[in-house]
Amino acid sequence: MNKVLAIVIGILIVVGFGWLAISSRNTPEESTRQTQSEKATDFALQDYDGKTMRFTDFAGRPLVINSWAAWCPFCRKELGDFAATQKEFGDDMVIIAIDRAESRETAKKYTDELGVTNGLIFLLDPSDSFYQSIGGFSMPETIFVDKNGNIVERKRGPMKINEIRQKIQKLLLL
Question: Rounded to two decimals, what is the model's pTM?
Answer without folding.
Answer: 0.80
